[in-house]
């Protein structure tokens, strides 16, 4: 039985691993099905992390984290956790390959993934012109026109990123006001390559055997429009990855919000002693790297205290 299992290798999980091992825990394993780094690695631009004054992309930003966070003994295993089970003396992690691992306590940092918009044709052409990652797929549209759907920070930032690669970016938003940071919106408005398409929704993604060919839009005033583009980037929110906390009865092993986030207190403790939730997974998550890292540190320090008092 290990002391602490950390599920998820984004900023929250890596920071939890750093603080737990530096704080004296000897047997700590972080489970991540792919390379550590988390969702932020798909971001094209990070300019608001304290202490990092140079604007950088997500992959470059996260590159040093793994090395630093394993310096004090954190082990990282590329295994996918299917679910967490509460047992008498701790927890049992069930992996996709059928294996198991018992742990005295668990910090869950599985994060979230980009939400689909639910547009007709979106699923059909996903990966063939429909994308949720400008950093991953923007290069394929060099010198071409593309569309971005959304009104939050990610949508604006990725539209700006794509404007440096593509000949034109249609920024489509269902309202005329944005949830994004005002300075980012102003930068986008000053960019000659970005055309704001406001008070509009995408009714259908059009395409053929070669992929996306265009979009059919409708405006609030009833007018319609068709835009010919080979690609659309969808940024309409995030879905919480909470499956690992599911039980066998269709519920969850700890208390959740109606939206599927984990209920936690200020120490990131869930309703189940010995189980913490951090980052996008928890309730009221600000969905910022600095906040996720803070969550991980808080949970790890409390886990050290928990193990000192209970084992």
TrEMBL record:
<keyword id="KW-0274">FAD</keyword>
<comment type="subunit">
    <text>Homodimer.</text>
</comment>
<dbReference type="GO" id="GO:0004791">
    <property type="term" value="F:thioredoxin-disulfide reductase (NADPH) activity"/>
</dbReference>
<comment type="similarity">
    <text>Belongs to the class-II pyridine nucleotide-disulfide oxidoreductase family.</text>
</comment>
<keyword id="KW-0285">Flavoprotein</keyword>
<dbReference type="GO" id="GO:0019430">
    <property type="term" value="P:removal of superoxide radicals"/>
</dbReference>
<dbReference type="InterPro" id="IPR005982">
    <property type="entry name" value="Thioredox_Rdtase"/>
</dbReference>
<keyword id="KW-0521">NADP</keyword>
<keyword id="KW-0676">Redox-active center</keyword>
<dbReference type="InterPro" id="IPR050097">
    <property type="entry name" value="Ferredoxin-NADP_redctase_2"/>
</dbReference>
<dbReference type="InterPro" id="IPR023753">
    <property type="entry name" value="FAD/NAD-binding_dom"/>
</dbReference>
<dbReference type="InterPro" id="IPR036188">
    <property type="entry name" value="FAD/NAD-bd_sf"/>
</dbReference>
<keyword id="KW-0560">Oxidoreductase</keyword>
<protein>
    <recommendedName>
        <fullName>Thioredoxin reductase</fullName>
        <ecNumber>1.8.1.9</ecNumber>
    </recommendedName>
</protein>
<dbReference type="Pfam" id="PF07992">
    <property type="entry name" value="Pyr_redox_2"/>
</dbReference>
<keyword id="KW-1015">Disulfide bond</keyword>
<dbReference type="GO" id="GO:0005737">
    <property type="term" value="C:cytoplasm"/>
</dbReference>
<dbReference type="InterPro" id="IPR008255">
    <property type="entry name" value="Pyr_nucl-diS_OxRdtase_2_AS"/>
</dbReference>
<feature type="domain" description="FAD/NAD(P)-binding">
    <location>
        <begin position="3"/>
        <end position="296"/>
    </location>
</feature>
């Amino acid at each position: 039985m290990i002391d602490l299992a950390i599920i998820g290798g984004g900023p929250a999980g890596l920071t939890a691993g750093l603080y737990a091992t530096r704080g004296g825990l000897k047997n700590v394993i972080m489970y991540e099905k792919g390379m550590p780094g988390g969702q932020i690695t798909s971001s094209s631009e990070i300019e608001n992390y304290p202490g990092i004054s140079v604007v950088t992309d997500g992959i470059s930003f996260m590159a040093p984290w793994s090395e630093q966070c394993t310096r004090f003994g954190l082990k990282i295993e590329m295994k996918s956790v299917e679910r967490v089970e509460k047992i008498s003396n701790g927890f049992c992690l069930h992996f996709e390959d059928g294996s198991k691992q018992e742990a005295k306590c668990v910090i869950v940092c599985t994060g979230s993934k980009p939400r689909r918009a639910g547009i007709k044709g979106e699923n059909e052409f996903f990966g063939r012109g429909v994308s949720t990652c400008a950093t991953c797929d923007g290069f394929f549209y060099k010198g071409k026109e593309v569309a971005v759907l959304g009104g939050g920070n990610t949508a604006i930032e990725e539209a700006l990123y794509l404007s440096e690669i593509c000949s034109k970016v249609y920024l489509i938003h269902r309202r005329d006001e944005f949830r994004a940071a005002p300075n980012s919106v102003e930068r986008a408005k000053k960019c000659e390559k970005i055309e704001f398409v406001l008070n509009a929704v995408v009714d259908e993604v059009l395409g053929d055997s070669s992929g996306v060919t265009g979009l059919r839009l409708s405006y609030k005033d009833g007018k319609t429009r068709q835009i010919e583009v080979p690609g659309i980037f969808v940024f309409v929110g995030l879905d919480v990855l909470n499956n690992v906390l599911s039980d066998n009865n269709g519920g969850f092993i700890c208390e959740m919000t109606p939206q599927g986030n984990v209920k936690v207190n200020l120490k990131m403790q869930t309703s189940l002693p010995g189980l913490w939730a951090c980052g996008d997974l928890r309730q009221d998550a600000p969905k910022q790297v600095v906040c996720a890292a803070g969550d991980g540190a808080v949970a790890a320090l409390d886990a050290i205290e928990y193990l000192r008092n209970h084992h």
